[in-house]
Amino acid sequence: MPQIPEKIHELTVGQLSARSGAAVSALHFYESKGLISSRRTPGNQRRYHRDALRRVAFVRAAQRVGIPLATIREALAELPEERTPTREDWARLSEAWRSELDDRIMQLSRLRDHLTDCIGCGCLSLRNCVLSNPDDVFGERRAGSRLMVEQPGADGPAHRTRRPESEDCR
After folding, report:
1. Contact by Cβ (8 Å): 142, 155
2. How large is the angle between the packed helices 13-20 and 24-32, nearest 10 degrees?
3. Residue 12 host element (H or E)
4. How far is residue 138's CA from residue 145's CA, in Å, rounded to a whole number?
C-alpha cells in the first residue's frame, strides 16, 4: 500500500483508491451521492482532502452492515467538513442504527425459521406460504396474491383491495 507523506494534505483519486481499497468508480459514485467531496485542479483533476480516507472507511463499514447510502449521507452531513470522523462519531451514529439492525436481524431470523417449512412443503402456495405471503391478514378471509392496490374511495381516503386471483394461485 503506497504511503502518503504527512505533509501532503490532498490525494488524487488513484491515491485515495489505493489507500482505501475502494475502486475509482466507487469513489466517483460516492462523490456523486454526496458521501465524499473533492475539489478540481486547474487541469480538472479531482483532489480529495485526507479526511476522505476515513469517510470512505466509514461508508464501507456502514454498507457492510446494510445501512442505506441515503442514511449514511445524512450521518456524514452531521459531521464538520474536512474533519475525520472519530471513534466517538462512529459510536454516536451507529447507536442510532442499532434498532434498525435489530429489526432486520429479527426479520431474517423469522425468514430462516420459515424457510425449512417452505422447502419441506414445496408448494409455495400463495394461500399458506409464509415466504410468498408473509403476515397476510387478508389471507385469513380469502386466498390470493398478497399484492394490494390502492383505490380511492368515493367518500373518503384511499382503501386497499385485493387484486383478482387466478385459479392457479390457490
Report:
1. no
2. 110
3. none
4. 10
